[in-house]
Structures are given as structure tokens and as C-alpha cells.
What does this fold into?
Amino acid sequence: MKYAIIIGDGMGDYPIPELGGRTPLGAADKPNMDYLARHGLIGTVSTLPPGLPKGSDVAHFSIFGYDPRLYYPGGRGPLEAAGMGLSFSEDEVVFRCNLVAVKDGLMHDYSGGHISTQEATELIRVIDNELGSSKIRFVPGVSYRNLMIARNLGRAAACTAPHDIMESSIDKHLPSGEGSRELIDLMMRSRPILDASPVNARRRSDGKEEANMIWLWGQGTKAAMSSFGERFGLSGAIISAVDLIRGIGFLLGFKIIQVPGITGYLDTNYSGKAEYALQSLEEHDLVAVHVEAPDEAGHNGDFRSKVRAIEDFDRLVVGAIRRGLEKLKDYKIMVLTDHYTPVSVRTHTGEAAPYLIYSSGATGESGEAFDESSTKRGGLHFPEGHKLIEFFLRHGK
It folds into this structure.
């Protein structure tokens, strides 16, 4: 038996008037997901336990069968560090360090205008040269997603995700609590450094958004957990452009599959993800494929781009993997979203997320499409999200 878990990040949404009262998932042309839903099982899964951050980090612990109330390391920083292959000590705290665009005191863009990885790397190296020390180091990642690793600093500080405060005053959302004075000082000192950089001079000249401040959040320390293979007896691989998801995969003992041209944005190499996923199943029992694009469109408040991202996800990822797996005798596919990212609020919300499970040889037909209302109305609900994976792996075997 081969297993494919295909995750459309942030696909869940609310009805949108411009889409005739449909959600982007309901309005999108997605024949592959709809086929799998009609001939398989559908339902909803609560991936975000109360009291924990409403983010992909928590949600993916649930998706892979690890109760985040027990395993979540306190923030996404150390998970991204694991995905980047970084080593750090137990007394070091790892922060996500976004490159953001601030205008008139407001958080204008959590991604610095979706700055390129090459530009971001140049900026973070300048920041590390100017603000780094024996206690603090800044590490470039992918695009706006970078890290700060600090010894015994800000572990318990209250920090806010920048995508949660779009067009809000940054002064109201700066870090607070233990270590916050030093964190705020670093963030404020970054502004003249970034403003003077050649990268931002070029971006200004080209009419692009400037990445004019670092934003520290999502901090945590080392995570420890048993591997997926130890728990479920299966070998696995994972494909994602996002260090956070790769880091979770690393902790699970999955092989991290590198795919050329994947960006974590709307221009990602969808087809390459499907191609490499099918190849990985020649060696592994299970592959997980993560696509970030719908989530990015939700954060940008762009329902048209979200519909397009869902359609590309369906055609180039779900459809290609479905066709490839049809050559095998025994396989199962699970397609789901990790959480909602409604375009109307531009951040993550805590509703139960839609999922579908399809097994090879299925003959029944429910007539249901794959969207929020159908899965809520006619499916099996998992109030404890970490229990869905066991159902997926064992049901119908």
C-alpha cells in the first residue's frame, strides 16, 4: 500500500459575495478533488486545539498524528531551523525573523513585497553583520522567512505574527514581557540599516515594496519526538518549499525531497512537486506534499489569486498524483487543508478544516463536491485532529 497526503495550505475560507456567495474552494474548477470526494470519504478535522497558535506549525503536528498539546515546541522558529539543517543548543531560542514592509507606522506587508530569496539573503547578512553578536545570530532562509537565534533571550516574550496585524499599528503589537526590550531594540535598529541597503535602493527604483524592518516572532526551543516510522511502521518523504514544514518532516524522520523551482508562492513549480512525489513512492511508503500558494493568497486578501492557486493545486498536483497512483494496485490519497485563511480577515482562523480520503478500487459515489459546506454537512468530523492520520492509514485495510 502506498499513501499520499496532499495539503493545500490555507484553502479554507468564508463565502465571498464576488464569487456568488461561494468560497474559493467552492468556486474553483477542481475536477480531481471533486472526483476523489465523490468516490471517497469526506469530513472535517480540527487541527488547531484551543489555546495554541492558529498556524501551520500546530496544524501539521495534528495532520501527522502528533497531539500538538504534547509535542508543540512553543513556536515555529525551531521547526524552521530543523528544516534548514541548523544546529542550536538547548539554551538558544529560535525566532522567525520576517523581513516586512512598514508604512506610516502600519504593518503594510508581512513579506516585504514577497522579496526574493537572493535579496533577502543579502539583507539578512547585513543585519547579522550589524546586529549580530556572540549571543545573537541571524540566518537567511527562503524569501521573507528568516531566523534569529539568540542565547537565553525572549523565550517567554509575547510576540505577534506579522500576518495577523496587516494594516494595523505596529506600536500596539510589539513584543512584550520577558526580554521584550532587547527584541524591540533589535527590530527598531534594523530600520535605518535596511533603509540604507542597496537592495532596497534597487527596489525603490523599480517601484517595488521595500523590506524595511525585521519582525521577530514565533520563538521556541528544541523539540523532541518519536519518528513517524517508530509510531506507524511506515517510511515517509515530504515535499514543501517552506522550511517550517520541512522542519516538521525532519523531526518525523521523513526524507526531505528537494524540488527545483518551488517558491512557497503562486509561481511555485506545482508539476515538479507531483513528479518528485511519485518518484519518492518508489522508495517510501508515504509521501506528503505541501503547497503554500492558497495560504499566501488568503494573507494577501486576493480571492482571485486564491481561486487560481486552488485550480493549479488541483490540476497540477492532485490530478498528476492521482494519475500516477492509478498505475498501482493499492494506494490511498488524503487531500486536506491545514486551516482556514479567509481573504476577508487575511490571517488564520480556527474552524474545522475539510479533508477527503480516497482508496484505490472505490466504487461508491456520494455526489458531494469537495468544499467547506459539503464536508461539514455530510462527513465524519475529527474533533481531535491528530487522530485523523490513524483513520487514514488503517481504515479499509
Remarks:
- The chain has two domains: 2-72+223-394, 83-220.
